[in-house]
Amino acid sequence: MAFTSLVRAYQPAFLRLAYTWVRDATAASEVVQQSWLSALESLSTFQAKSSLRTWLFGIVINTARSHVRARKRLVPLSVLLAEEAIDGPTVDPERFFSEGEWLGHWSDWPTPFPSPEDALETERLRALLERAIDDLPPLQRQVMVLFDVEGLSGEETCNILGISSTHQRVLLHRARAKARAWIEQRLSESERP
Amino acid sequence: MSEKPVDLSCQQLVELVDEYLAQSLTLEARQAFDVHLETCPPCSTYLEQMKTVLTLAGALGKARAPGDVEPQLLALFEQWRERSTS
Q1: Which of A30, A90, A128, B67 measures 20 to 30 Å from B80, CA to CA?
Q2: Residues 160-189, chain A: which have Cβ within 8 Å of B?
Q3: Tens of pLDDT along B47-61?
Q4: Domains of chain B and CATH, by start
Q5: This prediction's pTM
Q6: In the CATH hierarchy, which top-level class contains the domain A77-191?
Q7: How many other C-beta atoms can be found within 10 angstroms of the C-beta atom of residue B73?
Q8: Distances from the Cα of A158 to the Cα of A46, B22, B68, angstroms
């Protein structure tokens, strides 16, 4: 049945996307079920100008937004952009020399992550990254999930979220830097005696 | 006439990492980035860390669905189909 392969292909991504908005596993599951129904009901309006994946992701995000809005917890996009798509350094300036001959160079060097060739370490890093993404501000999280995790293009990401390409780039840049810093911080804490 | 390569500080380089990985830097900026990397272990580490983050993020997207959700959804589709065809 075509549905089976469709569901198998999209279900994990749908749940992740929905979760990034509703922050609750049960609610995310409800949103995804509702999204599938909406998709079925509006399948006749699907136009090949966007990919099926982009169209379906759009439905999930709209359904999730409605879900959050119904609980009066939806922060307007303009407010999120003002808070999250900001200029300024993405690495703590205190990690660099602020004066002298070495101005702008690392004073506190980053510690290499464990080798990704080691399966156990990779699993540990993967789990840390999941938590790091979960800890990002909502819009940065959305952009990173759509672009880096789901592998959408920049244009698709912009269309689904209703943001400009400049905002998309800034949000992604900040999200990645924050995720890296988050993992680094947790690794250094766990290695402290 | 070649121009002197732009000097990048580490603090400037970390803000260019995404564009470097996306290969969207200008030739001049890319050269400056590469020259800096050759002599700067901490910036090389930073770049490697970022590559790891992106590789792992892509792998997250390929993770399998939780097994118990699929039957529920298929049942839901069956109901929907019965409703819409009756």
Answers
A1: B67
A2: 169, 172-173, 176-177, 179-180, 183-184
A3: 999 999 999 999 888
A4: 10-85 (1.10.10)
A5: 0.83
A6: mainly alpha
A7: 21
A8: 19, 17, 32
